[in-house]
TrEMBL record:
It catalyses: S-sulfanyl-L-cysteinyl-[protein] + uridine(34) in tRNA + AH2 + ATP = 2-thiouridine(34) in tRNA + L-cysteinyl-[protein] + A + AMP + diphosphate + H(+). The active site is at C101, C199. One of its GO terms (biological process) is tRNA wobble position uridine thiolation. The gene is mnmA. Catalyzes the 2-thiolation of uridine at the wobble position (U34) of tRNA, leading to the formation of s(2)U34. Its EC number is 2.8.1.13. GO terms for molecular function: ATP binding; methyltransferase activity; tRNA binding; tRNA-uridine 2-sulfurtransferase activity. ATP binds at A6, M7, S8, G9, G10, V11, D12, S13, L32, G125. NCBIfam families: PRK00143.1, trmU. This is tRNA-specific 2-thiouridylase MnmA. The lineage of its organism: Bacteria, Bacillati, Actinomycetota, Actinomycetes, Micrococcales. The record marks H126, Q348 as: Interaction with tRNA. Residues 209-273 form the tRNA-specific 2-thiouridylase MnmA-like central domain. GO terms for cellular component: cytoplasm. SUPFAM superfamilies: Adenine nucleotide alpha hydrolases-like.
Length: 378
């Protein structure tokens, strides 16, 4: 099989490519240049796809004896990931750029180009598993190592994309084993730190970065009753669940800390309140997609039991879900939690599971708590 190995420059993608070669596939390595100005070196372990990463990917391909190319996806990345990130924050939502990158770059733009060039599959170093059911349909499942499982960020993959996806690290019991294997193979990235945080914000200062991209105006911070308790420098820089940096001029009556409950960019208001009001009972999702063939309840729009996860490393929570038709003809996903979940923000991605299987995902459009009605905040 002709396989295109996406080489980030890290240890996971290098070992995944090595395993694909060892399995007898015809493998070609490609590194994605996602920025026109990547800098010369990464800062600590932040970011990915820098010049240093490109060189590490080249060294790995050289050791593996496979061709190596760099593809410039910087314009597509800016439009589909960076600009989307800015627009979502400007609208008062909290986006996940890694989800958008997997959806629109690694498994849309990259896979599309790979198939056009005659490749059969794209291989990545993600920790996730693809399984075929009795009818030959492909399903996405959690990896063997749940601590490293990355099925959440792959929840946006469609049935057609899963047909051409290869995850050689699926059954690997630990990251330590991957590093040990890389060292045995003579790969220089064996002990390279994992990348983390948002790759295009190299210093990790999301608020400062956004301040340069979104026009910020001072406005009111109000509590859950609508009373003004402080002033902010720009509502768009806050996230639901945030505690630090509120600079409230008036303490709560009980002396306990307050958290961001809601962001209202049109009114330029930030709503704060006690931690207990962060608990969410129900979420409505838009931009719904299914990882593989949808289960029968999706087609019949009947309720089904599932687990829902709203963060890459968050704990899954038991829930009941149902697809509902919307006024614009696009389906919405309504998820009611068995136990409340804390700090859910519009713009986040909720991924549904049954057992280890990923059912699909949706972007959270709204989240509500039965404890208070946001409409009472004037």
């Amino acid at each position: 099989m002709k396989v295109l190995a996406a080489m980030s420059g890290g240890v996971d993608s290098a070992v995944a490519a090595a395993r694909a070669v060892e399995a007898g596939h015809d493998v070609v390595g490609v590194h994605l240049a996602l920025s026109r100005m990547p800098g010369t070196l990464r800062t600590g372990s932040r970011g990915c796809c820098t010049i240093e990463d490109s060189r590490d990917a080249w060294r790995a391909c050289d050791i593996l004896g496979i061709p190596y190319y760099v593809w410039d996806f910087s314009e597509r990345f800016k439009e589909d990931v960076v600009d989307d990130f800015i627009a979502e924050y400007a609208a008062g939502r909290t986006p996940n750029p890694c989800m958008r990158c997997n959806e629109r770059i690694k498994f849309a733009a990259l896979l599309e180009k790979a198939l056009a060039l005659g490749f059969d599959a794209v291989c990545t170093g993600h920790y996730a598993k693809v399984i075929e059911d009795a009818d030959g349909n492909r399903e996405l499942h959690r990896a063997a190592d749940w601590a490293k499982d990355q099925s959440y960020v792959l929840g946006v993959l469609t049935h057609e994309q899963l047909k051409h996806s290869m995850f050689p690290l699926a059954e690997t019991p630990s990251k330590a084993e991957v590093r040990a294997e890389a060292e045995r193979r003579g790969l220089s990235v064996a002990n390279k730190p994992d990348s983390h945080d948002i790759c295009f914000i190299s210093d990790g200062d999301t608020r400062g970065w956004l301040a340069e991209k979104i026009e910020m105006e001072t406005g009111q911070i109000v509590d859950q009753t609508g009373e003004v308790v402080g002033e902010h420098d720009g509502a768009n820089a806050f996230t639901v669940g945030q505690r630090r940096g509120l600079k409230l001029g008036r303490p709560a009556a009980d002396g306990k800390p307050r958290f961001v409950l809601e962001i209202r960019p049109k009114e330029n208001k930030v709503v704060v309140g006690p931690e207990a009001l962060l608990a969410v009972d129900q979420m409505r999702g838009i931009k719904v997609s299914w990882a593989g063939v949808p289960i029968a309840e999706v087609e019949s729009q009947t309720e089904f039991d599932c687990m829902v996860q709203v963060r890459a490393h968050g704990d899954p929570v038991a829930a009941h879900a149902q697809v509902e038709p919307a006024d614009d003809g696009r389906p919405e996903l309504v998820v009611t939690l068995v136990e409340p979940m804390r700090g859910v923000a519009p713009g986040q991605t909720m991924v549904l599971y049954q057992g280890t299987r990923v059912l699909g995902q949706a972007t959270i459009d709204s989240a509500r708590s039965l404890s208070w009605d946001p409409a009472q905040v004037s």
